[in-house]
């Protein structure tokens, strides 16, 4: 007997002995489940999930790796990081990161756990470096050598075109204090929303825009750079936010007003010109010359990531994709919208992940032990506010979130030889960015949802209904009618994006519970997950 | 030779101690309990006492 066989036999023996501690085994045998180990309401587990020897070790190693990245962040800029914790409310919320990762990958095993952690570690590594960099150069905290080489820009503007300024560092300004952190701590944004509303901002605007406005008024945005790029963010309330933020920063700004209804060919020359003007603005204010070769080098990375993404899509269409749910959605959203081809680690990670996915596909590996009952296309900003929702629907009801709308963002290739072609490609790429493409880019783009769902062999569509989104409120009945005509299981999932006081996570889960029990007459995979109170959880 | 043996023993014992201590923290979710019950409430108290110039 080889050593490997002996080890495997020993591990199998231990797993058998300890299987009663595995929450998935408990759920299958009516002796508990994934929620049994939590302290009431807090979302804090008494102990971590026992997943068997191998998978527990994978999870433990990933935890250590993330801990190391956070340690590196503190060591790289100890004083600014400590000052940041003391100065900014949102920094305190990052302490919930470990619990956040635990929530995201609850019930994950085998390849899906491994890939999920590989993707997540890329995000943690990138974010921790970015936090250290921004705080070390934040003028509120004393500034640094790179303060004036940073270009704060609106986070919904894909930063790839800025790669042509090889001496400058684009910083998606809302990402750290608002966008990512609202996933980690549900109690953070209500504070900022209240700040904005106390100044008269209407309570029925998109809560994300309110929260960003609150961050600005509370002076919780780090201040870096000499000039700022704002945009006509993809909804009306956001435009107001951009205006407030611009005033509060007190920096010269250029609004990169890309075409909103962008499917018409006439829109592209306009967006191309706006990008050219933005480049000219940065050249003027930072005294830097645009270098097309520097852009091409990063565009190569973005192109490769997009090529790999398209290969992943072929696997998503089958029941054998080891990458799904939030591990797919959050990674693509962060990797596309925030990193946007500018970090090599994402390309290397994509190559490794694709290899594991192909291997799992060849072995016909079904994720989550083959418990999937429905394949759903999620049309919603899952990575905002209630990020572990895809994990919950999988574990509780066997609904596999095959793809999320965020993952369909710009995947056209960008020329790496011709500057004029490259800027046109970048315009199209940027028009297909967050929300512009999905919600307010015209009816055709919203209605494309059915094509996406069909293409990925989904029998279910979960459509997030942001109760404060004026753009999407009008399409509710239209979508219901179409779902009926086309024969999809269709769930409208109400939420108030970042304000857990209006519609709680529990309320959101109950919408799914009601559909699954009343309409589909199905039984949950894990009884402990059906209804629970996590109102005090991060 | 004796020195190498001693060094090896120290390295192995240190690695083992590190593994055991971090695994206990990990398995019993100790870092999250500490953050949730002590550090986070302390920081919230501090943030709530901050004075901000919110004039617009």
Report on the structure:
The complex is a heterodimer of chains A (538) and B (56). Chain A has one domain. Helix content of chain A is 52%, strand content 8%. Chain A has helices spanning 3-18, 23-28, 53-76, 78-87, 89-93, 97-104, 110-136, 175-179, 181-184, 189-197, 207-217, 236-249, 267-286, 292-316, 325-339, 344-362, 389-397, 419-431, 443-447, 449-455, 470-473, 476-486, 505-519; strands spanning 150-153, 169-172, 228-231, 253-256, 374-379, 399-404, 460-466, 489-495. In chain A, the strands form three sheets. In chain A, strands 6-5-7-8 form a four-stranded parallel β-sheet. In chain A, strands 1-2 form a two-stranded parallel ribbon. The longest helix of chain A has 27 residues, at 110-136. Chain A starts with a helix and ends in a 19-residue tail after the last helix. Chain B has one domain (2-49). Chain B is built from two helices and no strands. Chain B has helices at 2-27, 30-49. Classes of the chains: A alpha/beta (538), B mainly alpha (56). At the A-B interface, helix 3, helix 6 and helix 12 of A face helix 1 and helix 2 of B.
Name the assembly state.
heterodimer
Q: Give the class of chain B from helix and strand content and strand pairing.
A: mainly alpha
Share in helix of chain B: over 70%
Based on CA atoms alone, the radius of gyration of chain A comes out at: 23 Å
Of all chain pairs, the largest interface belongs to: A-B, 27 and 21 residues
Overall outline of chain B:
elongated
| Biggest pleated sheet of chain A | 4 strands, parallel
Portion in strands of chain A = 5-15%
Low-confidence parts of chain B: none
What summary fits the major beta sheet of chain B? none
